[in-house]
Amino acid sequence: MECVVQGIIETQHVEALEILLQGLCGVQRERLRIHEICLKSGPNLGPVASEVRLLCDLEQAEPSW
């Protein structure tokens, strides 16, 4: 299963992001593979617009929301 998450996530560590995704998707971290992360700062933090792009695979047919 492939999912795309867009929004603003402020975190200093990728591990914290993986834990957040684990909780949202209901899978173990070992079953969550992150392929691409794109974080950009908000307009009040710099000249680049806010953006988060995340592509990941989940090793289960359906997420347990």
From TrEMBL:
GO terms for biological process: regulation of transcription by RNA polymerase II; termination of RNA polymerase II transcription. It comes from the Eukaryota. GO terms for cellular component: core mediator complex; mediator complex. InterPro entries: Mediator_Med18. GO terms for molecular function: transcription coregulator activity. Keywords: Nucleus, Transcription, Transcription regulation. It is found in: Nucleus. Its main location: nucleus. PANTHER family: MEDIATOR OF RNA POLYMERASE II TRANSCRIPTION SUBUNIT 18, MEDIATOR OF RNA POLYMERASE II TRANSCRIPTION, SUBUNIT 18. Belongs to the Mediator complex subunit 18 family. This is Uncharacterized protein. The lineage of its organism: Eukaryota, Viridiplantae, Streptophyta, Embryophyta, Tracheophyta.
